[in-house]
Amino acid sequence: MVPTPNPWGLPERTHRLLRGWGVASVAVFVGAGSHAVLTGHLPHPLILGLCWSLSGMLCVLLAGLRLPRLSTGLGVLGSQAGLHILLTLAGHGGVGTGAVAVHAGHHGAAALGSVQPAASADAVHQLSPLMVAVHALAAVLTILAIRRGDAALAGLLRAVRLGLRRLLTLPGPVPTPAPRPRPLILSCPAVLVSRIRPGTVDTRGPPLALPA
């Protein structure tokens, strides 16, 4: 399996671990927020902890898929589906003040000082179009938030690296052009020698033609 893009340069195992738990955390707590919107209160912390643990292991396994979008989508859907199942099995519902707090079509119903019949509890645990729509919207928003977060973190990392590189780079010596030395004259032309020392100069050439 090919891991998801790793802009942080981390080892593959570490990246999959952080990626999986990050996706699970966002998915579970966004799902808990959608539950709170419908019921008026947050789920029990023990249910959230159990769902977060199971979702984290699932998302870590999915983090190694070839397609990052598919990995993220399956992780979000699995996490929020697991949260809904746990809430349904626990009969988690709202609590009214001196009355029955009925949440039609959601995770459960409870009453202060009374126990609802099993048939009534099963009826309110059924999926309703409203709950399906809310969970679907929460899943879409979660996937978009994770994708935007990946791009934002990658951009932040590039900015931090560029800033640290400029701060930690010591200024090097500025090269200055050296003065060009004048060439030394090691041999003088024959004409110059003849002017300095008059006499016969061997030019080592063919003899000059005598005038007629």
The radius of gyration computed from the alpha-carbon positions, rounded to a whole number of angstroms, is 41 Å
Count every helix, treating DSSP H or I runs of 4 or more residues as helices: 6
Give the strand line-up of the largest sheet: 1-2
Q: Could you give the distance between the termini?
A: 102 Å
The helix-strand sequence is HHHEEHHH
Helicity range: 55-70%
Share in β-strands: under 5%
Backbone structural class = mainly alpha
Shape: rod-shaped
Residue-averaged pLDDT, rounded?
70
Keywords: Membrane, Transmembrane, Transmembrane helix
Overall description:
The structure is a single chain. With 212 residues, the chain is an all-alpha fold. It has a domain at 12-95 and 104-111 and 121-168. The chain is built from 6 helices and 2 strands, in the order αααββααα. It has helices spanning 12-39, 45-62, 68-90, 118-124, 129-168, 190-196; strands at 100-101, 110-111. The chain has a two-stranded antiparallel ribbon. The longest helix has 40 residues, at 129-168. Keywords: Membrane, Transmembrane, Transmembrane helix.
Could you outline the blueprint of secondary structure elements for this entry?
Blueprint: H1 12-39, H2 45-62, H3 68-90, E1 100-101, E2 110-111, H4 118-124, H5 129-168, H6 190-196
Antiparallel strand pairs: 1-2
Helix pairs in contact: 1-2, 1-3, 1-5, 2-3, 3-5
